[in-house]
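Q: For a teaching session next week I want to show students how multiple molecules come together into a single three-dimensional assembly. I've collected the sequence lines for a complex. Could you give me the predicted structure tokens for the whole thing so I can convert them for display?
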Amino acid sequence: MSKLLPLADPVESVACCSPLVSRPMTADEAEAAAPLLKALADPVRLRLVSLIASHADGEACVCDLNDAFDLSQPTISHHLKTLHEAGLLDRSKEGVWVYYRIRPAAFDAIGALLATSGTATSGSRS
Amino acid sequence: MSKLLPLADPVESVACCSPLVSRPMTADEAEAAAPLLKALADPVRLRLVSLIASHADGEACVCDLNDAFDLSQPTISHHLKTLHEAGLLDRSKEGVWVYYRIRPAAFDAIGALLATSGTATSGSRS
DNA sequence: CATCAATATTGACAGATGTCGTTGTCTGGC
DNA sequence: GCCAGACAACGACATCTGTCAATATTGATG
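A: Of course. Below is the structure for the complete assembly, covering every listed component.
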């Protein structure tokens, strides 16, 4: 499920001038992958994800997140919803509080995507 | 340059419940990183990058790219400009033709970012 | 039950984005 | 010098997005 695109065979990739990926993305694959990146492509949401990831257990309460921004509560709530609907965050309610947790699989998928699109797999020394 | 955020010490990360990253992203870091993702967060641009990456040498002529889509030439040109301005693609003119090439460093940066935000570093088994 | 605190939902609005048609700018060939 | 082809820039337009204020919902508590 995290295999969005087949990478070219490692052996082949090492050779001088072979393509970076074995075949281009299909339109459907692109349509499926774009929403994940879109959800992440906002400074506020990036920080939200980062904040949650930097908490112990990779989960954080909305009340903590609200305080980290100068934005209104509904705005934060909206961004969290966006991330949740994209499948990047899990939600769980505990009493009055709501906790959001990083969903690792989604980030793995994006990682695979990027390794695919560019070169990021094994850190090219630029 | 590709180090957008410091990961938690590997040693610590292995321990049960320590944070995934050593510290959250700053607002400035997020503002800097978001445009890269935003440039990539579009189905057409994803396919463009993918198409270029799947060409030998990781470069492709605009004329080839235009034919792969049902969109107008100006639209493709616009998307290529977006990717170029985000630093994801390099441009070079050869006679009448213009070639776009994957810029690996930019993708490395995004890769580091994601390893940071989520878990994608070492393939978590979901 | 009344009230308060934590989140979500709704509605509104300015600004960004994707697309197109048209026009402009090169470059190479006649 | 002129024309045709490859690509970029411009202007227009509909849609999407981020934000807020106001309101609703839900759970704990007195």
